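To: structure desk
From: M.T.
Subject: fold request, one chain
Message: Could you run this one when you get a chance? Sequence is below, nothing fancy, just the single chain.
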Amino acid sequence: MAIAVDAAGNAYMTGTTYSTNFPTTADSFQPVHAKGLNSEAFIVKLSADGSALSYSTYLGGGDSEFSAFDYGNSIAVDADGNAYVTGRTDSHDFPTTPGAVQRTLNNFTDAFVAKLNASGSALLYSTYLGGSGYDEGLGIALDAAGNAYVTGQTESGDFPVTSGALQSSFSSAGSNPLVADAFVTKLSGDGTALIYSTYLGGLKWDRGNAIAVDAAGNAYVAGQTESFNFPTTAGGLKRDFGGGFYKSGNRGRRWQVSNSGLPTPTPHAFAADPKTAGHLYLTTDDGLYTSTDAGAGWRLLSKQRIGSLVIDPVNPSTLYGTFGGVLKSTDGGLTWTPMNDGLSPFSFYQLFIDPLHTATLYAMGQNFFVANDAAANVARQSAAQLLPPLPTPHYLSRSTDGGASWQEVLLPISQPLNAMAMDPQVPSRLFINIAGQLYRTQDGGATWRLMNVHAFYQPLVVDPKTSGTLYGGFPGVAKSTDDGLTWTEISDGLPTPLLLQNLLAVPTTPTTLYVGTTYGLFKSADGGSHWQESGIAGDVAFVAFNPQDLSAVYTGTNDPRDAFVAKLDAAGSALLYATYLGGQSADEAHAIAIDNTGNAYVTGLTFSSNFPTHNALGSTKPRAVLYSAFLAKLNSTGSALTFSTYFSGSTTTTEGRAVAVSATGDVLVGGATEASDIPVKNPVQAAHSGVLDGFLFKLGAPRIASVALSGKHLLVVGENFDQGATVLINGEQQKTENDAANTATRLIGKKAAKRIPQGQAVKVQVRNSDGTLSNEFTFTRAVD
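Reply: Done. Structure tokens follow.
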């Protein structure tokens, strides 16, 4: 899982093994696997030439009665050759040392931090680190004094924090229990004290994946966050989490974000008043909001959480929603009443309203409790001719009295109900996808006809102008013009895999289609013959149109997660900077390194087509690429990118997992790729050989080999000069251009010769456009 190197070139590794015959050395701390059906962490020191194990040891607990699992996730080594490891353990007898910060496991799974001596024979210290929930150490770094800096994730409201820490309480306390904060902890060199320990996060899921420390003791943390309120700082690169409500007044050609009045950009469902122009409803994590000015501003109507939302087209003050059961409001969303008479106790997730007979509604739901009702089984068996007589875990129910009472619609087979569509012209015509088979009813569900035995389409939509035309998703988008009997794929221009969330058909001529995916919105203006990106990125929660004005289109997106980069001061009490890093789809940072001037280099993976790039090797993510590796360089204040690039092939996936910066400024990135065409140069292995291969690339820092005068100009020869590189003389920037024939190896300092007096020695450097400096080259101008 991780590797570190000492000054002599010995390699130190940690990871996880289930093997009872893992190669250990006899005099190591724990040469034998602990008892039980468990995994153990391991620590290995390999000689500089790779020919011998200097030591190799298990690290973990366990007994013969219980399974226990120990994982080594990150490792660092100090100047004396002591190895520091962090990871996670659920072993009650994980080896700890006297005086350690925490000697007992706190209930579930804890992080651990262990320091092994230079010979691998003894623990200098070892401690649990955690509270009563799940805790895991994911990154570790050291300062010159041997203090260990650890980051990871915690689900514990009682994680050990210190007085004066940056964030003393769990951000998500009292909310969804399935959330986490990152943490940052600094342990003393002997492991007996927390110098500081702090949470770092917002209301949702946050995770610190990697950490680095500079000479002043400032800690740099990289990870990922789902929190819209992650603590960012003024002047940071990106202060706002993505997502929110978007509207277009010109059929999706241009979009405007409109989050005014929305404290959290977490849209779920939407409804437009069909009678009052500009009157909109939007559900979020906070509750139900309304706008009376076409989304320019929003105000909270109700704290009621709502998943699916529909509006009565005849009486728009009547709204229906789902949250577990079915809810109804008759006062425009101010108050809500449960409407569950006749409904089984299960979760409903989609509502439909008959636009011609608005007292008729359909509710799709999923039952988590399979009842054994013999009478109901007999009725189902008789009505639908099913065997065996078991209730389906998915249900469709119907109300004909505005939700006052419900009756179950008997489905044709007892299998999962995946999707449903209503014909807006003939609302009693319904189509369902049940276990990959397409059925149609012409009488509101009383009888069903099998249309297609292999139609895994979800969602389903009926064309609003042509009753016999259907659209469906999976894995691309398909179209049927004969009520679903036959289908034709219409995915030209769409990415693969599509990861489709929702599908909308607008009754224009020809029908305009929108598909919302987990990484953006796509549009077809010709009934699906061709598709193009709409300019909306992110996880699309909904897409809708205004029935009074078909040029008005609305969508809501959720940013699944962003990478983050944060710099804490030496006391752990303040953020020197903290910023989101990413586009509007999912982004994760997995590794961080810093150079001697405090620039941070971060790598990870991004699903975003709008990840911020600068001075890039690859400025766009190919449409067929699900996610790409990225490498980003942030300046020392976290306010700007000096370099940021995608790194991928033309298809499939690539991810960055490790980054290092050499003393000369070279940057190395390692990771994994499914792509067979990532860019290669001077390769050890030129071709992709498996399903998933590792990769390593190196970006060389600028280096000067020679300097000479060329008339009035200074000619600088070397390597790795980028477009826009400049020559510095004693730190002073000179007017510079790249040699047209040798752009990466020759620079011309325009009229720079006059800056150097005869017989005088000067320091010449090259600075690339991302701020990376070359070696200093001493040049002495001869006396003529």
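Reply (cont.): The longest helix spans residues 374-384. Let me know if you need anything else for the meeting.
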